[in-house]
Amino acid sequence: MSTPTIPIIKTTHSNLANFNMNEIAFGKHFTDHMLVADYEDGAWKHVAIQPFSPISLDPSSAVLHYGQTIFEGIKAFKNDKGEFVIFRPDQNLIRFNVSAARMEMPQVPEWLFMEGMKQLINVESGWIPTTPDSSLYIRPFMIATDPYLGVRPSLTYKFMIILGPSGPYFSAPMKILIEQKYTRATPGGVGFAKNGGNYGASLHPVELAKQKGFDQILWTDANEHKYVEEVGVMNVMFVIDGKVITPSLERGTVLKGVTRDSSIILLREMGYEVEERNLSVDEIVAAHKKGVFQEIFGVGTAAVVSMIKQLAHGDYLMDFDPENMPIAKALKQALHEIRMGRKADKHGWMVKI
Ligand SMILES: *Cc1c(COP(=O)(O)O)cnc(C)c1O
User: Fold this and answer.
1) Does the pLDDT at position 16 exceed 70?
2) Overall pTM > 0.90
3) Nearest CA to 224 among 164, 178, 270, 163?
4) Which of 166, 200, 225 is the last residue of a domain?
């Protein structure tokens, strides 16, 4: 199918000149334009790039009541050669449509997702920060727009892409509590989908952990709270006795992170053994007691690799020196070098705009 042309309506009020690229707060600032498309009568229509603005929704819109909403998070960079590149957006498209299927929402075709994203970034290329470690954060999302309170899949949807400059995301090493009561995801549930409800449901338990002095939760399985799953909204990796271990995806309760996948590939190429399997809290505690629990870190698009300095299982505290996490550090460096074009992009991960 040939790619339809996406009309571009340019703003007459760019905010770029007033924007301070040296002080960027994540998630607060957006570029001048956005991509919009409406799903009606079984087809995507009215695709356009237009000035960034509020949208109007009927108060009875399905998304506001029953949570049919999904999103993605992707980053674009200006590499060392001055090219604009996006990190593995094809993987985000696949996952977006997996999320859509689970939420009984329509599939978004490749041209709309990829061409829409590239053309929008092209219009906004002046917004890609060039300061080290900065990026342009890309947020595609879809919402159900039927003005109808009956509980059924909506017949109409809106797909949008918004962009925001993102500064050097320094994430301080985190203190993490192993969650023993609340759950993020259940087998048969929606944990593998990037749908809004997962995040709404996680806020309360994370807040309780914060009141106890922690930064985030290490989620455990819903049945027994025995096996570890994810850390906050990141995938989690452990180094035990020189081996990297990350929870497997098979129960459908761990989100299939693009950073997780990339990390597994890169770590194996660096010569580390990586196991995707069930990992129990008992095994972690036993490894710590034996002195072979060496590193623990989160991986995700926003912070890339986040060191963890303390892991708590009830009163039992496991402390780590973030300065002494050679595997996490090497991984972070490798991802950075590929994105900046300093290291050969063997797998074709970087998509040029
Ligand atoms: C988005 C997300 C991740 C990380 O996925 P990336 O593709 O690496 O950004 C991990 N866990 C959850 C719950 C997420 O929402």
Assistant:
1) yes
2) yes
3) 178
4) 166
